[in-house]
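User: Can you predict the 3D structure of Esterase KAI2c1? Sequence below.
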Amino acid sequence: MEKIQSLCFPTGLLLCEENVVACLEDKGREIEEFNWVSDGGCDDDEYIKTLLDKEIACVVPQFQDSWIARARLDAIQYIIKKSEVLGFRLQTAYVSVTYLDRFLSRKSIDGDDNSWAMRLLSMACLSLAAKMDEVSVPPLSNFCVDDYNFESQVIQRMELLVLNELGWKMKSITPFLFVDFFAKKIFANTPPRNGVSRVEEVILSATGDAKILCLKPSVIAAAATLFVLDRGFTRDALQFKIGHVASSHSFDTENIVSCYYLFQEMEFERSNITSKGIESPCLSPIQFQKVEPCASSSIITSAKRKRLVFNLSDQFEDVHDKKGKS
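Assistant: Sure. Here are the predicted structure tokens for Esterase KAI2c1:
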């Protein structure tokens, strides 16, 4: 594992204005293609085929250090709560978590009193996701919370580090893009009350569980839709339902079934925690969240992660643990 002993924001990453504009122009064509798909530029079959051709499984880092696993769950909790406060869509929170995981799969953060670094990273990821997906984005100061209050310039520099590390590839296929399709196919003539919004909440609840988040977006969306329709499907019933939907498309039936059972496990664990009077972490609007850290997953990422060492003695000593400042 490569260890970086430099500052978290080296001068070389502060791209000049011309380079930033060039990068954005290069990405503009990619974004336009996604917009054509999502804005109704094709019929349902073309829409789904395009999404299936482009979707990839999310990269979720595996942590040997329990500190970083807990810090990731805390970052997700911040993202979901702050996203709700700021009135963002659930998809924005989900995309923020994918940015967080993609970054952490490439760089690691030392656990020596660097909880502030994870909070700064989560702020930057949420801000970037909002700029990609929301119509109106509040000032960066609105992303701060009482325990860590960073200056806007500091958050901007972390945004630039994230952009650089992710190669400026910020548009991605998410399960939310499949929800309407699966809702129409699976709910058919018996749609549950607020069915689509409930499916979206179940999808967001999966962000803390690596076993689910590592699956393809179409798999997560299909399993969440089936789970909202009925939480007690047998395997035969699931395969029948999926087979009916997959008549014109090649969906991953086995992984959809497995994902459905993972949602069942999460609900069972949540119910057990509630019945024992233990307060479960509020990681989704419906508190539908697995408690175990994501390091328990057997899925191993092949990406080589570099160690990110935050040097508090230099230019960021003034942002460390700014508690209570306005």
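The first helix runs from residue 17 to 38. The radius of gyration is 20 Å.
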